[in-house]
Amino acid sequence: MDIALDPEQARARHWFEDLRDQICAEFVSIEREAGSDADFDYTEWDRTDPDGSPGGGGVRGVMKGKVFEKVGVNVSTVGGTFEGDFAKSIHGAAENPQFFATGISLVAHMANPHVPAVHMNTRFLVTTKRWFGGGADLNPPLPYAEDTDEFHAVLKAACAPHGEEYYERYAKWADDYFYIPHRKVHRGVGGIFCDHLEGNFEANFGFIQDIGRAFLDVYPRIVRRRMDLPFTPADTAQMLEWRGRYAEFNLVYDRGTLFGLKTGGNIDAILMSLPPLATWS
How are strands ordered across the β-sheet holding 117-126? Predict the structure, then answer.
Protein backbone atom coordinates (compact mmCIF):
# COMPACT_ATOMS: atom_id res chain seq x y z
CA MET A 1 0.00 0.00 0.00
CA ASP A 2 1.42 3.39 -0.96
CA ILE A 3 1.28 6.26 1.48
CA ALA A 4 1.51 9.99 0.77
CA LEU A 5 5.10 11.24 0.59
CA ASP A 6 6.54 14.73 0.70
CA PRO A 7 9.41 15.56 -1.72
CA GLU A 8 12.21 14.61 0.71
CA GLN A 9 10.55 11.33 1.61
CA ALA A 10 10.01 10.50 -2.07
CA ARG A 11 13.65 11.22 -2.93
CA ALA A 12 14.91 9.03 -0.12
CA ARG A 13 12.59 6.19 -1.09
CA HIS A 14 13.67 6.38 -4.72
CA TRP A 15 17.35 6.27 -3.75
CA PHE A 16 16.95 3.22 -1.52
CA GLU A 17 15.02 1.36 -4.21
CA ASP A 18 17.55 2.31 -6.90
CA LEU A 19 20.42 1.19 -4.66
CA ARG A 20 18.62 -2.12 -4.13
CA ASP A 21 18.42 -2.61 -7.89
CA GLN A 22 22.13 -1.87 -8.36
CA ILE A 23 23.24 -4.17 -5.55
CA CYS A 24 21.02 -7.05 -6.60
CA ALA A 25 22.24 -6.80 -10.20
CA GLU A 26 25.85 -6.96 -9.02
CA PHE A 27 25.19 -9.95 -6.77
CA VAL A 28 23.45 -11.80 -9.59
CA SER A 29 26.46 -11.06 -11.83
CA ILE A 30 28.71 -12.72 -9.25
CA GLU A 31 26.48 -15.79 -9.29
CA ARG A 32 26.72 -15.92 -13.08
CA GLU A 33 30.52 -15.74 -12.89
CA ALA A 34 30.37 -18.77 -10.60
CA GLY A 35 28.26 -20.71 -13.11
CA SER A 36 25.02 -20.34 -11.15
CA ASP A 37 21.61 -19.30 -12.47
CA ALA A 38 20.41 -18.13 -9.03
CA ASP A 39 18.33 -14.97 -8.93
CA PHE A 40 16.41 -12.88 -6.43
CA ASP A 41 12.89 -13.84 -5.45
CA TYR A 42 10.92 -10.68 -4.68
CA THR A 43 7.86 -10.65 -2.42
CA GLU A 44 5.79 -7.53 -1.89
CA TRP A 45 4.13 -6.96 1.47
CA ASP A 46 1.65 -4.42 2.83
CA ARG A 47 1.40 -2.94 6.28
CA THR A 48 -1.79 -1.80 8.00
CA ASP A 49 -1.58 0.71 10.85
CA PRO A 50 -3.19 -0.27 14.18
CA ASP A 51 -6.14 2.03 13.40
CA GLY A 52 -6.80 0.11 10.17
CA SER A 53 -5.46 2.74 7.79
CA PRO A 54 -2.87 1.94 5.06
CA GLY A 55 0.61 1.88 6.55
CA GLY A 56 2.85 1.43 3.53
CA GLY A 57 4.84 -1.72 2.90
CA GLY A 58 7.91 -3.01 1.16
CA VAL A 59 9.60 -5.63 -0.97
CA ARG A 60 11.55 -8.56 0.43
CA GLY A 61 14.26 -9.82 -1.91
CA VAL A 62 16.08 -13.10 -1.22
CA MET A 63 18.58 -15.08 -3.30
CA LYS A 64 20.04 -18.49 -2.50
CA GLY A 65 22.88 -19.40 -4.81
CA LYS A 66 26.30 -20.93 -5.21
CA VAL A 67 28.24 -17.98 -3.79
CA PHE A 68 25.53 -16.33 -1.72
CA GLU A 69 24.12 -19.11 0.43
CA LYS A 70 21.46 -16.65 1.51
CA VAL A 71 21.31 -12.93 0.84
CA GLY A 72 18.40 -10.66 1.62
CA VAL A 73 18.02 -7.15 0.21
CA ASN A 74 14.86 -5.49 1.49
CA VAL A 75 13.34 -2.06 0.93
CA SER A 76 10.40 -0.62 2.81
CA THR A 77 8.43 2.60 3.12
CA VAL A 78 6.06 2.68 6.07
CA GLY A 79 4.19 5.22 8.14
CA GLY A 80 1.59 5.48 10.86
CA THR A 81 1.58 5.65 14.63
CA PHE A 82 3.87 3.99 17.18
CA GLU A 83 1.99 1.99 19.76
CA GLY A 84 2.33 2.42 23.51
CA ASP A 85 5.61 3.26 25.19
CA PHE A 86 7.71 2.33 22.14
CA ALA A 87 7.29 5.90 20.90
CA LYS A 88 9.31 7.14 23.87
CA SER A 89 12.35 5.20 22.63
CA ILE A 90 12.32 6.81 19.18
CA HIS A 91 14.00 10.14 18.45
CA GLY A 92 11.32 12.86 18.30
CA ALA A 93 8.33 10.56 18.85
CA ALA A 94 7.70 11.01 22.57
CA GLU A 95 5.65 14.17 21.91
CA ASN A 96 3.82 12.77 18.88
CA PRO A 97 3.76 9.04 18.02
CA GLN A 98 3.25 9.53 14.28
CA PHE A 99 6.17 8.35 12.13
CA PHE A 100 7.47 7.70 8.63
CA ALA A 101 10.39 5.44 7.69
CA THR A 102 11.98 4.38 4.44
CA GLY A 103 15.17 2.44 3.93
CA ILE A 104 17.18 -0.49 2.64
CA SER A 105 18.40 -3.43 4.70
CA LEU A 106 20.87 -6.04 3.47
CA VAL A 107 22.44 -9.13 5.02
CA ALA A 108 24.52 -11.68 3.09
CA HIS A 109 25.56 -15.10 4.41
CA MET A 110 28.10 -16.75 2.13
CA ALA A 111 28.66 -20.37 1.11
CA ASN A 112 32.46 -20.17 1.33
CA PRO A 113 33.77 -19.48 4.87
CA HIS A 114 36.59 -17.38 3.37
CA VAL A 115 34.05 -14.86 2.06
CA PRO A 116 32.90 -12.47 4.78
CA ALA A 117 29.25 -12.06 5.58
CA VAL A 118 28.10 -8.47 5.51
CA HIS A 119 25.38 -6.14 6.76
CA MET A 120 24.31 -2.80 5.30
CA ASN A 121 21.35 -0.69 6.32
CA THR A 122 20.54 2.95 5.61
CA ARG A 123 17.28 4.74 6.34
CA PHE A 124 15.40 8.03 6.61
CA LEU A 125 12.95 8.57 9.47
CA VAL A 126 10.47 11.32 10.20
CA THR A 127 8.79 11.97 13.56
CA THR A 128 8.68 15.50 14.92
CA LYS A 129 12.29 15.42 13.67
CA ARG A 130 13.85 14.23 10.40
CA TRP A 131 17.02 12.21 10.26
CA PHE A 132 19.13 9.66 8.43
CA GLY A 133 21.00 6.73 9.92
CA GLY A 134 22.66 3.43 9.19
CA GLY A 135 25.96 2.08 7.97
CA ALA A 136 27.76 -1.07 6.90
CA ASP A 137 29.88 -3.64 8.71
CA LEU A 138 31.93 -6.67 7.68
CA ASN A 139 31.45 -10.01 9.43
CA PRO A 140 34.08 -12.59 8.39
CA PRO A 141 34.11 -16.09 9.93
CA LEU A 142 37.77 -16.30 8.79
CA PRO A 143 39.13 -12.74 8.87
CA TYR A 144 41.71 -11.46 6.37
CA ALA A 145 43.54 -8.25 7.23
CA GLU A 146 43.55 -7.29 3.53
CA ASP A 147 39.75 -7.43 3.36
CA THR A 148 39.25 -5.61 6.65
CA ASP A 149 41.69 -2.85 5.71
CA GLU A 150 40.14 -2.34 2.27
CA PHE A 151 36.60 -2.28 3.62
CA HIS A 152 37.52 0.38 6.17
CA ALA A 153 39.61 2.37 3.68
CA VAL A 154 36.73 2.66 1.22
CA LEU A 155 34.32 3.71 3.97
CA LYS A 156 36.85 6.22 5.28
CA ALA A 157 37.18 7.71 1.79
CA ALA A 158 33.38 7.97 1.59
CA CYS A 159 33.30 9.82 4.91
CA ALA A 160 36.13 12.24 4.13
CA PRO A 161 34.22 14.82 2.02
CA HIS A 162 31.57 15.17 4.71
CA GLY A 163 33.73 15.84 7.76
CA GLU A 164 37.24 15.17 9.02
CA GLU A 165 35.89 13.47 12.13
CA TYR A 166 33.19 11.37 10.44
CA TYR A 167 35.12 8.16 9.95
CA GLU A 168 36.64 8.00 13.45
CA ARG A 169 33.33 8.89 15.08
CA TYR A 170 31.22 6.44 13.12
CA ALA A 171 33.78 3.62 13.11
CA LYS A 172 33.83 3.81 16.90
CA TRP A 173 30.03 3.89 16.95
CA ALA A 174 30.01 0.66 14.91
CA ASP A 175 32.52 -0.97 17.28
CA ASP A 176 30.41 0.01 20.28
CA TYR A 177 27.10 -1.02 18.68
CA PHE A 178 28.04 -4.29 17.00
CA TYR A 179 29.18 -5.88 20.25
CA ILE A 180 27.73 -8.93 21.99
CA PRO A 181 27.93 -8.18 25.74
CA HIS A 182 27.05 -11.66 26.96
CA ARG A 183 29.85 -13.12 24.77
CA LYS A 184 32.22 -10.19 25.30
CA VAL A 185 33.11 -10.21 21.59
CA HIS A 186 32.46 -7.96 18.61
CA ARG A 187 30.12 -9.31 15.94
CA GLY A 188 32.67 -8.74 13.19
CA VAL A 189 35.53 -6.45 12.18
CA GLY A 190 33.49 -3.28 12.16
CA GLY A 191 32.64 -0.62 9.63
CA ILE A 192 30.70 2.57 10.25
CA PHE A 193 27.37 3.27 11.93
CA CYS A 194 25.54 6.56 12.49
CA ASP A 195 22.12 7.77 13.55
CA HIS A 196 20.10 10.95 14.05
CA LEU A 197 21.77 12.86 11.22
CA GLU A 198 19.40 15.82 11.07
CA GLY A 199 19.28 19.50 10.23
CA ASN A 200 20.66 19.62 6.69
CA PHE A 201 18.75 17.23 4.45
CA GLU A 202 20.95 17.65 1.37
CA ALA A 203 24.24 17.14 3.23
CA ASN A 204 23.01 14.18 5.24
CA PHE A 205 21.30 12.58 2.25
CA GLY A 206 24.53 12.94 0.28
CA PHE A 207 26.46 11.17 3.03
CA ILE A 208 23.98 8.31 3.20
CA GLN A 209 24.17 7.94 -0.58
CA ASP A 210 27.97 7.81 -0.39
CA ILE A 211 27.75 4.99 2.16
CA GLY A 212 25.64 3.01 -0.28
CA ARG A 213 28.01 3.69 -3.18
CA ALA A 214 31.02 2.72 -1.06
CA PHE A 215 29.40 -0.58 -0.11
CA LEU A 216 28.57 -1.33 -3.75
CA ASP A 217 32.18 -0.58 -4.67
CA VAL A 218 34.05 -2.60 -2.06
CA TYR A 219 32.00 -5.62 -1.05
CA PRO A 220 31.64 -7.30 -4.47
CA ARG A 221 35.41 -6.93 -4.93
CA ILE A 222 36.05 -8.76 -1.65
CA VAL A 223 33.58 -11.50 -2.61
CA ARG A 224 35.30 -12.10 -5.94
CA ARG A 225 38.70 -12.24 -4.22
CA ARG A 226 37.66 -15.05 -1.85
CA MET A 227 34.78 -17.00 -3.41
CA ASP A 228 36.91 -19.64 -5.17
CA LEU A 229 39.29 -20.39 -2.29
CA PRO A 230 39.25 -24.02 -1.09
CA PHE A 231 37.94 -24.64 2.42
CA THR A 232 37.87 -27.49 4.91
CA PRO A 233 35.19 -28.99 7.16
CA ALA A 234 36.90 -27.20 10.05
CA ASP A 235 36.48 -23.88 8.20
CA THR A 236 32.78 -24.60 7.73
CA ALA A 237 32.39 -25.54 11.40
CA GLN A 238 33.95 -22.22 12.42
CA MET A 239 31.60 -20.36 10.08
CA LEU A 240 28.52 -22.08 11.50
CA GLU A 241 29.55 -21.32 15.09
CA TRP A 242 30.22 -17.69 14.14
CA ARG A 243 26.75 -17.53 12.54
CA GLY A 244 25.29 -18.52 15.89
CA ARG A 245 26.87 -15.43 17.42
CA TYR A 246 25.50 -13.32 14.59
CA ALA A 247 21.99 -14.66 15.20
CA GLU A 248 22.28 -13.94 18.91
CA PHE A 249 23.12 -10.29 18.27
CA ASN A 250 20.32 -9.79 15.78
CA LEU A 251 17.68 -11.37 18.01
CA VAL A 252 18.79 -9.85 21.32
CA TYR A 253 20.38 -6.48 20.61
CA ASP A 254 19.67 -5.26 17.08
CA ARG A 255 17.50 -2.14 17.11
CA GLY A 256 16.36 -2.64 13.53
CA THR A 257 14.87 -6.03 14.41
CA LEU A 258 12.97 -4.47 17.30
CA PHE A 259 11.79 -1.55 15.18
CA GLY A 260 10.40 -3.89 12.53
CA LEU A 261 8.58 -6.03 15.07
CA LYS A 262 7.18 -3.05 16.98
CA THR A 263 5.88 -1.34 13.82
CA GLY A 264 4.09 -4.33 12.30
CA GLY A 265 6.61 -5.08 9.59
CA ASN A 266 6.76 -8.27 7.53
CA ILE A 267 8.15 -11.03 9.77
CA ASP A 268 10.01 -12.82 6.96
CA ALA A 269 11.62 -9.54 5.90
CA ILE A 270 12.57 -8.65 9.48
CA LEU A 271 14.16 -12.04 10.14
CA MET A 272 15.88 -12.40 6.74
CA SER A 273 19.10 -11.47 8.58
CA LEU A 274 19.18 -14.88 10.25
CA PRO A 275 21.55 -17.40 8.66
CA PRO A 276 20.22 -20.50 6.87
CA LEU A 277 22.35 -22.77 9.07
CA ALA A 278 24.12 -22.14 12.37
CA THR A 279 25.48 -24.12 15.32
CA TRP A 280 25.88 -23.64 19.02
CA SER A 281 28.43 -25.63 21.01
Answer: 41-48, 54-63, 68-81, 98-110, 117-126, 130-139, 190-197
Please report the domains of the chain, with CATH numbers, ordered by start residue: 7-272 (3.40.1500.10)
- Indicate yes or no: pTM above 0.90: yes
10 Å CB burial of residue 11 (0-12, 13-18, 19+) is: middle
> CB of 78 within 8 A of CB of 266?
no
Which of 109, 114, 119, 152 is labelled catalytic? 119
Residue 196 appears among annotated catalytic residues: no
Give the mean pLDDT per block of 10 residues along the chain (281 residues).
Answer: 89 98 98 98 92 90 98 96 82 87 97 98 96 98 98 98 97 96 95 96 98 98 98 98 94 87 84 93 76
